[in-house]
Structure formats: structure tokens, C-alpha cells
Amino acid sequence: MTALTLTPLPGIPLIQPGDDLAQLILEALKRADIELLNGDILVLAQKIVSKAEGRLVNLAEIQPSPRARELAQRTQKDPRLVEMILRESREVLRTRPGTIIVEHRLGFVCASAGVDHSNVQGLDETHDWALLLPENPDASAQAIRARLEEASGARIGVLIIDSHGRAWRLGTMGVAIGLAGLPGLLDLRGCPDLFDFRLQITQVGVADELAAAASLVMGQAAEGTPVVHVRGFPYPLREASLRELLRPKEQDLFR
Fold it and tell me: Residues spanned by CATH 3.90.1660.10 within the chain?
């Protein structure tokens, strides 16, 4: 087992729509004197991917539906924000004042469909902007990975992460919402344990474990380090997608 090293990349600027994230990452790697090697992983905060892809919404232009207005009244939220949550969701699962839990259109369960109204600088000086998750985070990760591999010649992985709460514990943590070139789930069923018993049910969400570790390095507020370089990931890289981390609805005991 080798050491796992996570290094935040310095000097990533505030991202604007249309920015070339791959080029900015290559420049940050050079500043950090890091040469990409086979097996390295780059972890990106969702916000910079969404901003680069222009996923900003001006709430002043949003007309809430009757359903959004009714749900906003029950949850004490801005009806325009609720309208965007509904548009990004397959189903509303739970509500309470201040909280809307949904199944996102990408398949995972989260609060507010990932629609973010904090730390979002829009295209003008107003604060009436919200940021949506990337349209297809797996595709976003794959595109960035392809650019970085072409430039470096190394075989790497790219992970896009966001902060999610959990049904059974307090606090948010980093989780994977898009990945390319690294496993999402490690299936250990059939492997022997220390006493040579065969594991029966153990599957490890290795992409989420790495997301949580990278989230610690990035910080959650104003730290401004949205890209983390990872070396020493203890599992072989392979092709994967977010789908392998999503629990089927029929196995979800919290719905």
C-alpha cells in the first residue's frame, strides 16, 4: 500500500462561462511543479465545472409555476429557486421548512437538486443568480480527462464532486457526481478477510471515499482551491460512470 497524497492546485482563478478548465489545470500543475503520471487523479469541485459550462441561471428571468409557488410557501423558499429545483428533479421526496429533498434527474437523491444560490457570482452585479449541476457530469469529466491525457501522455482519472447530506447522519460531505477513468464502486464480494472468510456483501464506494478526502483539502467556504491532484490511489484505474454508485430505488430503504 503506497501513501495517498492530495495536493490542492494553486492559482485557479474565479471561473467564468466558457473558460478552458483543462488548460487552467495544466497551468496550475506547472505552478505546483507536478508532472502527471499514470494512475494520478484530478478531483474538481462541481462549481467550477458548472460555471465553465455556463450553468448559471438569472432568477429574475424565472416565472414560477403554481406548483413551485405552493411548494415555496410550504418550505419558505424563493419560488423562483423552487422552480429551478423542480426543473432539475425527477421527483420530490421530502419537504420541510428550509429543505426540499429530491431525486435529481441524474438519478441520485440530494437536497435542492444541487441548485446553489451561495457563493455564486452571476453575469452582472445582482445576487439573483443560481448555479445548476453540470448537464452530464460524466461527460464533463471524460472531456477534461481526454485533454489532460493528450497533453501529458499519462493515463489518469478525473472526478467531479459536490457536497451532499446523508439520511442517517448529520453534516455534508464530498461525494462523486461524475467520473471518468477511475472506479466508482469496488466489489469485494468473494474476497477473503483476515481469517479467510469470504466477504458476502462488501462493496466499497471508492469514488465517494476519494471525494470526501478531496473535499477536506478543498474546504467548504471561501478557500478557493477547487482542484486537487491525487497520487497513490490504491486501486487500478478503469472505465466507469456515476451509474454504478446509484442505489436502485427498490433497494432504497429511506424512500
Answer: 56-131
**Start and end residues for every CATH 3.30.1330.100 domain found in the chain:** 5-52+136-242
Question: Closest Cα partner for 28 from 151, 132, 209, 178?
Answer: 151
Tens digit of pLDDT for each residue in 109-154? 999 999 987 656 655 566 688 999 999 999 999 999 999 999 999 9
Distance CA 91, CA 254 (A): 14
DSSP string covering 213-235: HHHHHH-SSS----EEEEE--SS
Topology, domain 5-52+136-242? 60s Ribosomal Protein L30; Chain: A; (3.30.1330)
Strand 129-131, strand 56-58: pairing:
antiparallel
Alpha-carbon dihedral sign for residues 20, 21, 24, 29 = negative
- Which residues have a Cβ under 8 Å from the Cβ of 253 and sit 6 or more positions away? none
Q: What is the DSSP letter of 4?
A: P
Name the pTM for this structure: 0.91
All three cell numbers of 45, joined, read 469541485
